[in-house]
TrEMBL record:
The keyword Transferase applies. GO terms for molecular function: 3-oxoacyl-[acyl-carrier-protein] synthase activity. The keyword Nucleus does not apply. GO terms for biological process: fatty acid biosynthetic process. PROSITE patterns: KS3_1. Keywords: Transferase. Gene3D superfamilies: 3.40.47.10. GO terms for cellular component: cytosol. InterPro entries: Beta-ketoacyl_synthase, Ketoacyl_synth_AS, Ketoacyl_synth_N, Thiolase-like. This is 3-oxoacyl-[acyl-carrier-protein] synthase II. Pfam families: ketoacyl-synt. Residues 8-211 form the Beta-ketoacyl synthase-like N-terminal domain.
Amino acid sequence: MDNVASARIVITGVGLTAPNGNNLQEFRRNLLDGKSGVTVLHDKIMGEILAGVCNYDDTRYQSKKELRRGTRAGSIGIYCTNEALIDSGIDLDLYDRANIGIYVGITEHGCAETVVECFAIKEFDYNPRYVSHNFNPKGISNNPAGEVALNLKITGPHYTIGAACAAGNIGIVQGLQMLRLGEVDIAIAGGVSETIHAFPIIASFKNGGALATLSI
C-alpha cells in the first residue's frame, strides 16, 4: 500500500474547451497572447452581456440525436474526454473498461435543461403529459459522468462531485486518490461548468452585482 500511495501519477493527455480555445495548444497560445475569449453575448431574455462561451464542435463525438437526449454539461464532458484520449494516445480497447474511472467535478448542471422544459410545458398549460421522458436522466447529478461513460462504453466507477469553483480541482484529486487506492487503472478526471445557457444563473449574478456589464 505504501508503494502504491507514493507512486507517481502521470497525466497522459489533456482535453478542454474554453472561450479562448478548444484544445490545449490553442488555449495556451491565446493565454500567452492575452486573449480571454470574452465577448458580447446576445441573450433573448437578459439582453447584451459580457460572457465567455465555449464554441466547440459538439457533433465531433456525438450525433445530433444524442445531443438532444443529453445535456450541455454531458456534451462538454464527452468532447473533452475524447480530446484527452487522443492527446494521450491511449487505446481503450487494450484495457478492461471496468477498471477505468470517470470523476467529474461540477459547478452546477441541468439548469438550462430545466428552464427549457418549464418554457415548453407552459405552452400546454403545465400538463404533465408533455414533460419529456428524457428530463429525468438529464437532471440527475451524475449525468455528466454518466454521459461520458455511455459514450465510451466504460463500465467502471463514474460519478460527479459538486465543488462550485473548485470543481475541476476536486475531480482531479478524486481521480488521483482512486488511482493510488488501486481502484482503477485509468482515471478520467476534470471539471465542467455550463452556466452560460441558463438565464436564471446569469440573472442571479446580475442581481447580486457580480455580472460584468458593457459599461466596463
